[in-house]
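hiii, so i know i said id send this last week but things got crazy w the move. better late than never?? heres the sequnce for the chain we talked about at the cafe, plus the structure i predicted for it. fair warning i was half asleep when i ran it
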Amino acid sequence: MNEKFQAAIRRFDEENSRDPNQEDSRPRELLYAERLTAWVLRLCPNASEALRLAARCQHICRWESPREKYPMTRAGYLKWRADLKKFHAEKSGAILSEIGYDPETICRVQDLNLKKNFPADPQVRVLEDALCLVFLEFQFAPLAARTNDDRMINALRKSWEKMTETARNEALKLNYENREKNLIQRALAS
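okay and structure toks below
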């Protein structure tokens, strides 16, 4: 990829390196961006520049808008998620503009961040698949440990419904503990 692309990745990583939350002794959002990028490239080795950029900035500076600032209700959760998507899109757009990206590319990255035209847009599908796979590989077990079975089964069903057949096959290859395997089996059985 070109110098502008490399500069954008560096800037996204610099921003995410400021995350005060740690996972595996690293800033959580930086690690998340790396994992998401890896899944996008695994699912789509020839991913467009816009898709690669969107993967790297999908959760940029997420810690700046904590869930706790919203009501702990379903409506509060949905509002938080909607506001986050807009925040990520605006933040990534500002960085891409600083670096000198053209408005069309910036708009495309933002559309991907916002998951516009899902599921019709194939690149948004790849990004959504990668998001689901990052969840299943790295976030599922810790979430399942603190969430009741019915809620986890519901979350797994929703994720599964959004995923393509390719992503589902990848998901079934991941290593799960017995409890997580059981939850997946129960989610897929119904």
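btw The two ends are 44 Å apart (CA to CA). thought thatd interest u
miss u guys!!
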